[in-house]
Design a protein that fits this description.
The complex is a heterodimer. By secondary structure, chain A is of the alpha+beta class. In chain A, a hairpin with a 2-residue loop joins β4 and β5. In chain A, the strands form 5 sheets. Chain A has a 7-stranded mixed beta sheet. In chain A, strands 4-5-7-6 form a 4-stranded antiparallel beta sheet, covered by helices on one side. Chain A is globular, with a radius of gyration of 26 Å. Chain B is an all-alpha fold. Chain B is 76% helix and 1% strand. Chain B contains 13 helices and 2 strands. Chain B has a two-stranded antiparallel ribbon with strand order 1-2. The longest helix of chain B is centred in the C-terminal third of the chain and has 38 residues. Chain B is globular and about 85 Å long. Chain B starts with a helix and ends with a helix. The chains are: A alpha+beta, B mainly alpha. Chains A and B meet through α4, α8 and α15 of A and α2, α3, α7 and α11 of B.
Chain lengths: 534, 323
């Protein structure tokens, strides 16, 4: 009796195992991919960083999101309207389920917004875009903004929606906090509405995901059913894992390895320009530069000196020699995929050494001067090499660059405002998180103001009152056409004022096994919805 | 003997306090942790608030004593990067490092000592010469390069072995082991050899030099004169007399295998404590760095203690002096 029961169970188990096994062998598509680091947390409010948020977008979703061309598309909201300058109505999608099976409603939106304002959250800035959110019915919310906000849906493309009931059940109603505590449940567990669910999570080692069968959108392109993700920090090991066939997709790939990968039959390199603009800033704030041989005055306050620099550095040569032609040279601080970009101010400056020399002489520096350039060596694509190239180009007009290239945590600890802003010249990269030009204007161009947090990454202290007046208008203009015209005006003024030395959009650099279709989104986010396996 | 051990344990506390002190004095020069903990849209005020919460504004002595005070109660703080308790992080990473170090130590000893003996006895043999050439490579090539070359050859060209990671592991509750799966063993081979190569050649050269010296001494000549069989002279008398320095060096090397597995772990993405340490430096994760350095100091102290105890077992003269 017992024995037969045992056999019966074994037989059932075997049949099940067989059917599952067969099912997998027919249509299981496992994507194995590697990145240089791991996402910092599963909690969508613990760190506002592109890779972490991009990865979380596989299992969490927002009201509006970007498609593969960075166009804004509806996600958990079906549509939205802006009936009054400070009021937005979002109509939420019906029939959406979280991974635990509970339905998505207006309460979850309000809960997630409130959670983004709790102590450990790094998304407080996004939360602060709303003064209040009211529930109209289960699938409609009304958002009141403190000031008119023309781009609220864009601002919230990374404000992920969590389940209220799940968070309350697991006592994770506050964002993960570095001080610890039981609310850190969401740091290692997720419950989103996205197309994939976390099956196993070993931070820094391995993360396994599988397709969520109850996903609302049946139209996404991907046919991937399982994902294993492993961070590989060493560049050569990462590339080796791709060539040896252990990985399907690795990011990033060092630029110098491109020729080698192109010679391999089974892999290819994707290197579209990123939405990140790389540029060099100059201290125009202090009356005397901290790191220069010129005493008593600041040469960068003189527009002729800045112009001479912008006319000397040939961004096309940097692109050819250091980026293998895959970057896009720029004459401004925003990339071409950013809302508000225009070729009239985005084209690079025309190099003219003779004119530059004359300008420098007119400004009173016929023999040039010496200045220190701060540069990270592990933050941007070939960052140190770019700085070296700039240094050798500036030497042609007598400006001697004393290059200080160091690891990013030391570099940022020297140049950032919070760390004392100890720099005279620095290389920085910027992607506006809203994919909109206004963010770059506020952070990089606006006069520094510790009260409003304007100009927080304007490390050279560039300040132009006319542009500031325009920024104030742009921030509250809800007519998109008028707004874009003002953005154009502001950037044209910056261009003609030679406020920065813009360099390029650096290339993204992904290595992928041939046959896999991947959309390279310009904000360097891999959206699983667009990955199609052969 | 007990007295001796107690004194050593007592000394180890001072060693660890000193290591912690030096570490905290240097952390100021590693960089600013705050920028790695927040996104670009976080305001200056929020950054300052976070810095204040974590006590990063305090002078380093205050930070040091706070750390020591908490550590004495078994609390090593929270990782800035992962927002998990440091003790939990290190616990989850320790098995990988210890298994790798153990495998490397076994390889180094079980290949190094026989090769040393062989090259000492057959100095001019073809095999001896090739061993000596091999050992030159092992001594002079950096671990990093050896690892990369191994990956290139066995991982990419031949595709025999996985080029990164630890393979599948079996979780035993308090210990995750790679010894129980096929992919675990396959993944272990390259990192273990890479890490062992330097130690192996060192042990081999040491054994060889010591053996050559001992074989010249009078008591070996007398043993030969007495007509003892060659095998007995070599292994019973000569080898045993070479072991004291070998044990010292091997013991110290075992400590450095654990400590310097950092490079091997980075090359092979081996998920151990060394890799954790490197990642922590990159993001200025001070609590993890501090705990790791203390732990390594502790390992060194313990290993030295074991080495000292082994002397008693190997060298009868020490026992005589004591009694």
């Amino acid at each position: 009796m017992k024995l037969s029961k045992f056999f019966k169970h074994t037989a059932i188990a075997a049949t099940l195992a067989l059917s599952v096994g067969l099912g997998q062998s027919v249509d299981a598509k496992t994507l194995r991919w590697a990145y240089q680091g791991d996402m910092m947390s599963l909690d969508p409010m613990s760190l506002n960083e592109t890779f972490t948020l991009g990865f979380q977008g596989w299992f969490y979703e927002t009201l509006a999101a970007y498609d593969k061309d960075l166009k804004l598309v509806p996600q958990l909201a079906e549509k939205w309207e802006n009936p009054e300058p400070t009021k937005w109505i979002f109509h939420l999608r019906k029939g959406v389920k979280f991974h635990d099976g509970s339905p998505f409603t207006a309460d979850d939106v309000i809960f997630s917004w409130k959670r983004s304002l709790t102590q450990g959250s790094d998304m407080k800035g996004y939360g602060a875009k709303a003064a209040d959110i009211k529930k109209i019915d289960d699938h409609t919310v009304e958002v009141t903004t403190p000031t008119p906000n023309p781009i609220l849906p864009r601002d919230w493309t990374f404000l992920y929606i969590m389940s209220k009931s799940w968070a309350e059940k697991n006592k994770t109603t506050e964002a993960t906090n570095v001080k610890g505590g039981e609310s850190n449940y969401a740091n290692l567990h997720e419950n989103g509405t996205g197309p994939f669910m976390i099956v196993d999570r070993q931070p820094d080692v391995k993360t396994t995901l599988k397709r969520f069968d109850g996903y609302w959108n049946k139209d996404i392109a991907t046919n991937v059913t399982e994902i294993t993700f492993q961070p590989i920090s060493q560049e050569s090991t990462r590339v080796a894992a791709l060539i040896s066939g252990e990985m399907d997709l690795v990011m990033p790939v060092p630029v110098q390895d491109w020729p080698r990968l192109e010679s391999e039959p089974n892999v290819q390199v994707l290197n579209e320009p990123e939405a990140r603009a790389i540029f060099i800033g100059m201290d125009q704030h202090r009356d005397e530069l901290l790191f220069s041989n010129i005493k008593g005055k600041n040469p960068f306050k003189d527009k002729r000196v800045r112009q001479a620099i912008d006319l000397t550095v040939d961004t096309k040569v940097i692109n050819q020699k250091i980026m293998r032609g895959a970057a896009k040279p720029l004459g401004t601080l925003i990339a071409d995929k950013i809302n508000g970009y225009d070729e009239s101010f985005g084209a690079p400056y025309k190099t003219d050494i003779e004119k530059a020399k004359k300008l420098l002489a007119d400004a009173g520096y016929p023999d040039g001067f010496t200045v220190q350039l701060d540069c990270p060596n592990d933050r941007y694509v070939n960052d140190e090499k770019v700085c070296q190239a700039v240094a050798s180009m500036l030497a042609r007009i007598g400006i001697k660059i004393d290059l200080l290239a160091q690891t990013k945590s030391k570099y940022f600890a020297k140049v950032l405002l919070q760390a004392g802003n100890n720099t005279s010249m620095y290389l920085l990269g910027w992607t506006p998180s809203s994919i909109d030009a206004a963010n770059s204007l506020t952070n990089l161009v606006a006069c520094r103001d510790s009260k409003t947090a304007a100009g927080q990454f304007n490390l050279g202290g560039y300040c132009n009152k006319e542009i500031d007046a325009l920024i104030a208008k742009i921030d509250v203009e809800t007519d998109q056409a008028k707004r874009n015209a003002m953005i154009k005006e502001a950037f044209t003024m910056l261009h003609n004022d030679y406020g920065y030395l813009p360099l390029h959009q650096q290339p993204m650099s992904w290595g992928v096994r041939k046959g896999i279709k991947v959309a390279q989104r310009a904000d360097d986010v891999l959206d699983i919805r667009n990955v199609v396996m052969p | 003997m007990l007295n001796f051990i107690a004194r050593r344990v007592f000394q180890s506390i001072f060693v660890m306090l000193a290591v912690g002190f030096i570490a905290f004095a240097m952390f100021r020069y590693v960089g600013d942790p705050i920028n790695n903990m927040v996104g670009q849209d976080t305001t200056l005020e929020q950054r300052a608030e976070l810095r204040r919460q974590l006590g990063l504004d305090d002078p380093f002595l205050v930070q040091y004593f706070r750390f020591i005070g908490n550590a004495a109660q078994g609390d090593f703080g929270m990782s800035y990067r992962q927002r998990r308790p440091v003790s939990e992080l290190i616990e989850s990473r320790m098995p990988a490092t210890l298994e790798l170090s153990f495998a490397s130590a076994v390889i180094a000893l079980f290949l190094g000592i026989p090769m040393g003996i062989y090259t000492a006895l057959r100095r001019d043999g073809v095999l001896s010469r090739s061993f000596m050439t091999l050992s030159l490579i092992g001594i002079s090539l950096p671990t990093f390069l050896i690892g990369i070359l191994m990956i290139l050859f066995f991982g990419v060209m031949l595709r025999w072995l996985p080029s990164f990671g630890r393979g599948d592991v079996v979780d035993l509750g308090w210990w995750s082991t790679g010894f129980l799966t096929k992919s675990g063993w396959q993944s272990l081979i390259m990192p273990a050899f890479t890490l062992a190569l330097f130690q192996m050649t060192l042990i081999m050269r040491l054994v060889r030099a010591e053996m050559l010296e001992v074989l010249q001494t009078d008591f070996i000549k007398f043993a030969r004169a007495r007509g003892l069989p060659e095998r007995m002279i070599n292994f019973r008398h000569a080898l045993k007399n070479t072991l004291v320095p070998v044990i010292t060096i091997t013991g110290l090397q075992l400590g450095s295998i654990i400590a310097f597995s950092i490079i091997t772990e980075t090359v092979f993405q081996w998920p151990g404590m060394g890799l954790l340490f490197i990642q922590s430096i990159g993001s200025v994760d001070i609590p993890v760095m501090a705990a790791y350095l203390l732990l390594i100091a502790f390992f060194f102290v313990i290993i030295n203690l074991i080495v000292d105890l082994l002397y008693f077992a190997v060298d009868p003269r020490l026992r005589v002096q004591k009694s």
